[in-house]
Amino acid sequence: MPEQTSAQPYKISFLTGTAIVIANMVGTGVFTSLGFQVLGIQSGFALLMLWAVGGLIALCGALCYGELAAAMPRSGGEYHYLSQIYHPALGFLSGWVSATVGFAAPTALAAMALGKYAASVWPAVPPQALSVAVVLLLTAVHAASSKAGSRLQVVVTAVKVAVLVVFIGAGWLVAAPQPIAFLPQAPDWQQLLSPAFAVSLIYVSYAYSGWNAAVYLTGEVADPQRNLPRILLAGTAVVLLLYVGLNFVFLYGTPIPRLAGQLEVGYVAASQIFGPAIGRLMGAVIAVLLVSTVSSMIFAGPRIIQVMGEDLPALRGLAVVSRNGIPVRALLLQTFLTLVFILTSTFEQVLLYAGFILSLFTFLTVLGLFVLRVRRPDLPRPYRAWGYPVTPLLFLALSGWTLVFILRDKPTESLYGLATLAVGAGVYFLGRRLRAV
């Protein structure tokens, strides 16, 4: 057989891309959010509508991102889109948020949730100490080898989905129904317009975050103009069905007072429905799944910081890589930020802070769809957002409504988010000045 002199670069297929989207979405949020939502909302209908509306927002966003990705088929996501549509400064701020908040905060949230779930199964384990230990251990592993912890990501994704499907099916068959109504009553519609519903959408939006994951890999997707919109829609639709089903089972089989204020709702619901032994098993399984979430975030995040260091003189030191090609300095920076979140904030504060600032940039990106159509009507668009202009307007209306209520009802977390942008703007203009010297 003749020896091959060249090989075609690997391209991500529709199936693999859909798995990437699902893997990025199914993480901390769905296992932790409901306990905070039931503190302000008691209606079964309104609670399920939270997850349906959150899924609708994600689907509308995926439709819009599909058009942008097909029109501008280059990796980089919001960093690329906002730089081209508005100004490089806004693109940089998007990258800055991804590099600081976008990975460090979700890593901290996953580690904090892991600690809580582990403590539910093994009460002697101190949650915060375990969270810190897991982050430090995985940082050491990824600093030593770029391949460590990455080979089983597809298998872990399949396990995550299987756990959810089995839990939904078994819970629905076994659970003793609780006295909660899922069909709407007259007062339920008022809750859909309440501040509690708007603030709870941030929790739900965080759980759905990752629906845009494939746009960061546009350059590696086979036939991106055709496949990328399909990947975004298929992955988001699957997760929407899983999330609504899972939260239905949580509420169907567990009294709301038992869920209220609890972080580890998966463990609480499993214990109520299947008994303490299965509940502990479920808590242990979720804790293991969250280890994979922490690992993937620690692996991916420093690469964005490294690229930004290559582009901006002020961050040039963070672009340095080890002999194994690992951006160790960027890795250590992300780990430091993650530990700050774990040691200084509650889970709810970190979630609202991260949710607010990340939602702000997806809002600006979808708004950019209108801007791009006006400024570049001649730009080839192999895929156009279905339902335009209704779908992007619906995304903007729901996301904007949520952001306004977060600013009003959670000013501390919102101000921290805006302060992060202010620091990023300072770094950008300092870098521009150093480049001009």
TrEMBL record:
A Gene Ontology cellular-component term: membrane
* Highest taxon in the source lineage: Bacteria
Instruction: Just give the chief location class.
Output: membrane
Entry's localization field: Membrane
Q: Does this UniProt record's set of keywords contain Transmembrane helix?
A: yes
Keyword Transmembrane helix, does the record have it? yes
Q: List all membrane-crossing ranges.
A: 12-39, 45-68, 89-113, 125-145, 152-175, 195-219, 231-253, 281-305, 326-344, 350-374, 386-408, 414-431
Q: Which InterPro entries match?
A: AA/rel_permease1 (IPR002293), AminoAcid_Transporter (IPR050598)
The membrane topology term of the UniProt record is: Multi-pass membrane protein
Q: Which UniProt keywords apply?
A: Membrane, Transmembrane, Transmembrane helix
MF term (GO), any: L-amino acid transmembrane transporter activity
Q: What is this protein called?
A: Amino acid permease
Question: Which organism was this protein described from?
Answer: Hymenobacter aquaticus
